[in-house]
Design brief:
- The structure holds two protein chains of two kinds.
- By secondary structure, chain A is an all-alpha fold.
- Chain A contains twelve helices and no strands.
- Chain A is flat.
- By secondary structure, chain B is of the alpha/beta class.
- Chain B has a six-stranded mixed β-sheet, sandwiched between helices.
- In chain B, helix 4 packs across helix 6 (163-176).
- Chain B is globular, with a radius of gyration of 18 Å.
- The chains are: A mainly alpha, B alpha/beta.
- The A-B interface holds A 110, 113-114, 200, 202-213, 216, 220-221, 224-225, 316-318 and B 66, 68, 71, 73, 96-101, 103-106, 108, 110-113, 122-123, 126-127, 159, 170, 173-174, 177.
């Protein structure tokens, strides 16, 4: 037996050149497409960083902790918008997560017949298809007037709490939070539903087979098995809530005066950017770029955190 | 406690001790009839095997015994299933309670993605077990003949075990809720011969304390483990197109395999089947 016969055998049958080229070409194509995503992201980051350099050197970290936004005096601090961004997105999640996950459970467990479930699931997905400007209009003309008595009630009864310390006069953070709930609810529901549907049927059977109640099976077996997917959906929703512009800018009031109160008008970073870029010049453009950079870093932070959370949870349950 | 369930020795003549009794049971999935006209008295403290070709409804009947079919949408049952004389499908019977007294082991090993210890403790806890959990876990794992392999790694995930170990863990989990009856749906079909042998040995041990009903595709297994055997078959019926499952013959295992009364049974057990 000749030991060096191996290579010869393989060179006897050559693949046609075009075949090899197509193979290699496809590989390069995927590399190019994948790099494009990274390049675009890098490009945006560099542009924003370059644009904000002037403001960073002028205002430094005080930009993050002061709320004085004064284009006339050329003084800028973004605390109001940063507070607004974090508070609106976090509180909208607090409301939307139980609602969305609850809806998803209702839509995956056999509580109602399949046909009804499918119709309901379709309706939830249609909710995601409403343009945000339409939701903004609805918030201004329907939701906010409807809510005002309740918000006034909160003010009169719980006004001693800083978060309810102002008289609601129309647009404000509270209606903005609720419109964000409407916008992120379909994301959370759809992703939670998919994750719940992917829980292996064997696991359900295992739970029911040892006499678990439906309640116990959902809470202690099915939800834990789906939690990594649900967490991923929640993080996506958080990203959406932080970046959402149109509906929020229509209902939040766009005020740069800092207030702890949820009933007072406020601002978010994306809403502020949308409102001011048109007529900004000089330091203001740079300050807005700085705010945009803060938003990007916040989103990045959230995403990294999300990856970490998902990895921790899924390690436990797969 | 298991001590309360009598440990009948394998004398197939004790017909007075009926555990589960099926009276003219028919099961349909939607409009699709799976099995009909099943009459059967499953004796207490013995191993009853269901054999038959695919699609004959033996798994469906098994799942009807602890109302697992409730979880399948559109599945309906006609006739009566009596457990010690009580109709399992009566209006005031709680399906969850039924499953606690009639446990089930499935075809594919399905441990919870939790630690080995938690896999056992979970079922016991939801059943309101108040005693020493460590002791219960050890006892259950011992009964399922898997204690020696797992005693040093109780905190590890149940999913990290081999297929055969997982299946024994699942049996231990069922044993831990201290049911009267254990239903097994082809428990060895995904396992290698060694694991299969271990589970069969375990079944011999378990029948001292439990009534066991096992579905199997492996006729040798039925011969090795069971006292009674039900042979299910598919038959074409005049009133519907397609076929429907039915119980062809139900008798002591020896009789089914040596001197069956039906020609179809004879053909099936001797391998001359369609």
């Amino acid at each position: 037996m000749r030991l060096d016969s191996g290579p010869d055998l393989f060179t006897l049958r050559r693949r046609p050149v075009s075949d090899k080229l197509a193979d290699r070409g496809f590989r390069w194509l995927t590399v190019a497409l994948a790099s494009l995503v990274g390049l675009v992201l890098l490009g945006i980051l560099l542009t924003v960083m370059g644009g904000s350099r002037q403001a960073i050197s002028a205002y430094g970290l005080a930009f993050l902790t002061t709320s004085n936004w004064d284009p006339v005096g050329d003084q800028y601090g973004a605390l109001t918008a940063i507070y607004g961004t974090i508070v609106t997105s976090a509180l909208s999640l607090v409301i939307a997560v139980p609602l969305g996950v609850g809806t998803a459970i209702f839509l995956t467990e056999n509580i109602i017949p399949t046909k009804l479930r499918d119709i309901l699931a379709l309706m939830v997905e249609l909710l995601a298809a409403i343009p945000s400007v339409v939701l903004g209009l609805w918030a201004i003309f329907v939701m906010e007037p409807f809510l005002r008595p309740f918000l006034s009630f909160l003010y009169t009864r719980l006004g001693w709490l800083p978060v309810f310390s102002t008289d609601p006069q129309g647009p404000g953070m509270a209606p903005a939070i609720l419109i964000l709930v409407v916008m992120i609810l379909p994301i959370i529901t759809a992703i939670a539903r998919d994750s719940l549907l992917q829980v292996p049927p064997e696991l359900r059977q295992a739970a029911y087979g040892i006499g678990t109640t439906r309640w116990g099976a959902i809470l202690q077996v099915i939800l834990p098995a789906a939690v990594s997917g649900i967490a991923g959906g929640v993080m996506l929703a958080l990203g959406r809530a932080m970046g959402e512009t149109m509906a929020v800018t229509m209902i939040i009031g766009n005020s740069n005066n800092f207030s702890w109160s949820l009933l007072a008008p406020g601002n978010t970073i994306s809403s502020m950017l949308a409102n001011q870029f048109g007529e900004a010049d000089g330091n203001q453009v740079s300050a807005l770029m700085y705010a945009a950079l803060v938003l990007m870093l916040l989103t990045l932070l959230v995403n990294v955190l999300a990856q970490w959370v998902v990895r921790r949870l899924s390690l436990k349950y797969t | 406690m298991t001590s309360s369930s009598p440990t009948t020795s394998a004398s197939s003549s004790s017909q007075s001790d009926i555990c589960l009794s099926l009276e003219n049971v028919g099961i349909s999935y939607g409009t699709n009839e799976a099995v009909r006209n099943v009459f059967m008295d499953i004796p207490k403290g013995q191993v009853t095997a269901f054999i038959g070709p695919s699609g004959c409804g033996k798994s469906t009947v098994l799942r009807a015994l602890n109302r697992m079919n409730d979880l399948i949408e559109g599945c309906t049952l006609k006739g009566r299933v009596l457990f010690h004389g009580q109709d399992l499908y009566a209006r005031d019977v709680d399906a969850v309670e039924v499953r606690r007294r009639i446990g089930m082991v499935f075809q594919k090993p399905n441990p919870f993605p939790k630690s080995i210890y938690e896999n056992i403790a979970f079922g016991a806890r939801i059943n309101g077990y108040k005693g020493d959990m460590d002791e219960l876990v050890e006892r259950s794992l011992r009964k399922a003949a898997i204690w020696d392999e797992t005693k040093d790694k109780l905190k590890q995930s149940g999913c990290a075990l081999s297929g055969g170990q997982q299946q024994r863990l699942c049996i231990a989990r069922t044993v831990a809720i201290e049911p009267e009856v254990i239903l097994m749906d082809e428990p060895c079909s995904a396992l290698d011969p060694i694991s299969t042998l271990k589970i069969e040995e375990m079944i011999h041990e378990l029948k001292k304390s439990y009534t066991i009903v096992i579905v199997t595709h492996n006729m040798q297994q039925a011969v090795r483990v069971s006292d009674m055997t039900g042979f299910f078959n598919v038959q074409a019926k005049a009133d519907i197109d397609g076929k429907v499952g039915c119980l062809e013959e139900f008798a002591p295992t020896e009789q089914i395999f040596n001197a069956p009364s039906q020609q179809a049974t004879q053909d099936y057990v001797s391998g001359r089947f369609g």
